[in-house]
Design a protein that fits this description.
Aminopeptidase; 7 helices; 29% helix
Length: 210
């Protein structure tokens, strides 16, 4: 399918900070910004900034960011599913994965993650996609948050709901390995029924669990 990216931006004042939310942005735009040293959930900051710039320049790749005074303090990524995951076995070219969402610790509590997800869905092209995210408790910042697994799960699900992603069942072994793990999905309004059925076949590969 043709990947159309429409840029959006908005400035929001929260707790005395004026934050810029924008995207999808290019790798060149990412490289113009500083990158918060606290964004370490997936890689060291310099490596993660490089990875985001590479994703941004993929035809299907989308990076939306939150910026404070020229520094990226939060981001969300959309890209084709990881080749090592079952979702990549789908023949659909309109299946995107919300691969990562991260906000620097000192900016949490300002609804930065929710705003990023809301901004992501401003783009009308998202109505052509099935968007998934796989939540695994071992990726969550339980130590710094002071939350239990279930409290954190509730926070993550509420935040994803802001982007229109809702819980869906699956028999994926990694998700099923812990009850707090989950699959969340947003099906765009223009996604054909046959694509939804194809996606359902990927969600449930073990027919006895349907």
């Amino acid at each position: 399918m043709k990947h159309i990216k429409t840029y959006y931006s908005e400035e929001i004042e929260s707790d005395g900070k004026k934050l810029l939310f924008e995207g999808p942005i290019s790798g060149e735009q990412i490289n113009r910004y500083d990158f918060h040293e606290g964004l370490v959930a997936f890689r060291q900051p310099r490596e993660q900034k490089k990875a985001l710039a590479e994703i941004a320049d993929l035809p299907e790749g989308r990076i939306n960011v939150a910026v404070d005074d020229g520094m990226i303090i939060g981001y969300v990524t959309f890209v084709y599913p990881d080749p090592l995951e079952r979702w990549s076995e789908s023949p659909l070219d309109n299946l995107l994965e919300l691969g990562a969402i991260e906000v620097a610790f000192e900016y949490r509590g300002l609804n930065v993650g929710s705003r990023l997800l809301e901004l992501s869905m401003y783009d009308d092209a998202m109505e052509d996609y099935i968007i998934i995210t796989t939540e695994y408790y071992w990726h969550w910042d339980l130590k710094n948050s002071g939350k239990s697994v279930w409290e954190y799960r509730k926070i993550m699900e509420k935040m994803m709901n802001k982007g229109g992603l809702e819980w869906m069942a699956t028999d994926d072994p990694e998700i099923s390995s812990h009850p707090a793990n989950c699959l969340l999905v947003r099906i765009g309004s223009r996604v054909p029924l046959e694509d939804v059925q194809t996606f359902d076949n990927v969600r449930f590969m073990d027919r006895f669990m349907i």
